[in-house]
Amino acid sequence: MDPHAAAPTGATSDAASDAPARKRPRPGERRVQILQTLAAMLEQPGGERITTAALAARLEVSEAALYRHFASKAQMFEGLIDFIEQTVFSLINQIIEKEAAEPGPATGVRQARRIAGMLVQFAEKNRGMARVMVGDALVLENERLQQRMNALFDKVEATIKQCLRDAALLSPPGTRGPDPQVQAATVVALVAGRLQRFARSGFKRLPSEHLDAGLGLILDWKAA
């Protein structure tokens, strides 16, 4: 058969009619696809720094198409950080409200435990996000990205400290527990360290491993 011969008109028409029409993403859909793909690429442990060229290739679009939705790669990472912040603090508010329904000296401890557990569960379910949270994916990226993640953990620490402080006010007179500020800082350090180990182990060492026991050493106490 002559490779340069024209295909029969009828066959070409039928093939065109049978081929599914490629749908163009709705406004905002492509932006979400870019962030989802970036997060998926970050799930590759020990992977090289992600370039916009590699991201565009994975999406089968041009780099110019990426820049129609994000002005820079830093903005793409900021989109992931926005998602992390919104999700984490929405869940923290739910935890605080639920536990506050039963106020008492142990309320702050329950809140701190559940907040720590939520953070490691979020990381286990969103491995690419875990690398962003610990800064592993932000190496050589814009410095403000790491500053935002540092601020997130600072805010989590402040929230846990306030929970423990409020609950301590309900303790019986004459009892004195550990300093809420020290407890909160230690809880966040424990969680951050476990997330770091999770990312550096290629996601093999789960941060939830023996988490309750570790938190118990920090939060559980008995007044003398």
Q: Average pLDDT, to the nearest integer?
A: 85
Secondary-structure-derived class: mainly alpha
The percentage of residues in β strands lies in: under 5%
Q: How many distinct beta strands? A: 0
How far apart lie the N and C ends?
94 Å
Q: Give the helix level as a range of percent.
A: 55-70%
| Poorly predicted spans | 1-17
Global geometry: elongated
Order of helices and strands: HHHHHHHHHH
Gyration radius, in Å: 24 Å
The biggest sheet, with number of strands, parallel, antiparallel or mixed sense and barrel status, is: none
Total of helices: 10
Write a brief caption for the model.
With 224 residues, the protein is mostly helical. Helix content is 66%, strand content 0%.
Provide an overview of this structure:
By secondary structure, the protein is an all-alpha fold. Helices cover 66% and strands 0% of the residues. It contains ten helices and no strands. It starts with 8 loop residues before the first helix and ends in a 5-residue tail after the last helix. The N terminus is likely disordered.
Question: Which helices and strands, and how do they pair?
Answer:
Elements: H1 9-18, H2 29-42, H3 52-59, H4 63-67, H5 73-100, H6 107-125, H7 127-133, H8 143-168, H9 180-200, H10 211-219
Helix pairs in contact: 2-5, 2-7, 5-6, 5-8, 6-7, 6-8, 6-9, 6-10, 7-9, 8-9, 9-10
